[in-house]
């Protein structure tokens, strides 16, 4: 899983992304994004509660999963919740498996020898990235994005499920170009991607990126508190994975423990207290999306797609 850390200082621009978003140079900004929305009803419930009652600020929707329709209904009922599209080319479950949005015969290079999506194991990811044709990746990504547009929903950004920065340079470049067409931002956090995206003049995280699967279960709440206290100035992002035991109530595995402990901290009064005490500003991708949309107008706009252009906000969107 993705590990926390700081990007190399040689890659950092003279002006931080947080400043380009309209905040003071010493502002400590944090996006708290709930990944895997749509994977299961219990995850859907935990994500909504973590945003509406907890400290989370946004989520990312997995359109391929069986609980995605429920997740999209929840978003339709809550138009103020900002969300991204969790672009998915792998499947880690052995039960309730999902497949591509595109017809399988249209994206054969994305499938294993059994005609299924690869598992996000090291071997599975390597096999996928070795054989995936970029035109088929584009077909599948467009299908997932357009499924959201067909539901009448307006996302803010694109990110990746179990493939950091898409796993390949050309896949990240494709995604940035798709974001330009659809008027969206992209989550980027690995040093090579940060360099290329900053070269385009686009805001990305200034400091290390946190994937909650990288944290130990024991003492996680205390670790989260320390990470908040140590949060540096600039734009930071946490990818968290809240969930409850409803997914598989009789099975307690590492996945369940990660999700349960994430949910507990995000919903805790302690999390709110530390944020207030430290003066950390929790934002979401809407303000980042505004700059991406303004900066990428030189790319051809999408004219035939089904995704309705979103209306970027006029000012920074701060969770209160």
Could you provide a short overview of the structure?
With 320 residues, this protein is α/β, with parallel strands linked by helices.
How does this model look, in words?
The chain has 320 residues and is an alpha/beta fold. The protein has a single domain (23-295), classed as Glycoside hydrolase/deacetylase (TIM Barrel). It is 38% helix and 12% strand. It has 11 helices and 8 strands. Strands 1, 2, 3, 4, 5, 6, 7 and 8 form an 8-stranded parallel sheet that branches. Helix 6 (169-182) links the parallel strand 4 (157-160) and strand 5 (185-186). The longest helix has 17 residues, at 134-150. It is globular. 46% of the residues are buried.
Descriptive labels:
320 residues; alpha/beta; TIM Barrel; eight-stranded parallel sheet; 12% strand; globular
């Amino acid at each position: 899983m993705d590990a926390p850390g700081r990007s190399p200082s040689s890659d950092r621009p003279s002006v931080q992304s947080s400043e380009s978003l309209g905040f003071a140079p010493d502002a400590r900004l944090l996006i708290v994004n709930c990944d895997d929305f749509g994977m299961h009803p219990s995850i859907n419930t935990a994500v909504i509660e973590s945003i509406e009652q907890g400290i989370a600020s946004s989520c990312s929707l997995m359109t391929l999963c069986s609980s995605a329709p429920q997740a999209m209904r929840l978003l339709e009922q809550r138009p103020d919740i900002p969300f991204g599209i969790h672009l998915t080319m792998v499947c880690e479950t052995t039960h309730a498996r999902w497949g591509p949005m595109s017809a399988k015969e249209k994206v054969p290079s994305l499938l294993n020898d059994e005609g299924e999506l690869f598992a996000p194991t090291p071997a599975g990811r390597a096999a996928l990235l070795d054989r995936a044709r970029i035109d088929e990746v584009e077909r599948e990504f467009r299908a997932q994005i357009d499924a959201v547009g067909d539901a009448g929903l307006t996302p803010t950004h694109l990110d990746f499920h179990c493939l950091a920065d898409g796993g390949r340079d050309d896949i990240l470049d494709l995604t940035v170009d798709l974001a330009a067409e659809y008027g969206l931002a992209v989550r980027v956090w690995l040093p090579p991607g940060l360099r290329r995206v900053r070269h385009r003049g686009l805001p990305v995280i200034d400091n290390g990126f946190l994937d909650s699967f990288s944290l130990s279960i024991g003492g996680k709440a205390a670790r989260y508190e320390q990470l908040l206290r140590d949060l540096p100035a600039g734009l930071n992002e946490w990818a968290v994975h809240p969930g409850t035991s409803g997914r598989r109530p009789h099975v307690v595995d590492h996945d369940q423990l990660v999700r349960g402990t994430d949910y507990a901290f995000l919903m805790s009064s302690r999390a709110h207290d530390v944020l207030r005490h430290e003066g950390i500003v929790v934002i979401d991708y809407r303000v980042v999306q505004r700059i991406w949309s303004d900066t990428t107008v030189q790319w051809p706009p999408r004219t035939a797609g089904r995704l309705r252009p979103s209306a970027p906000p006029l000012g920074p969107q701060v969770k209160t």
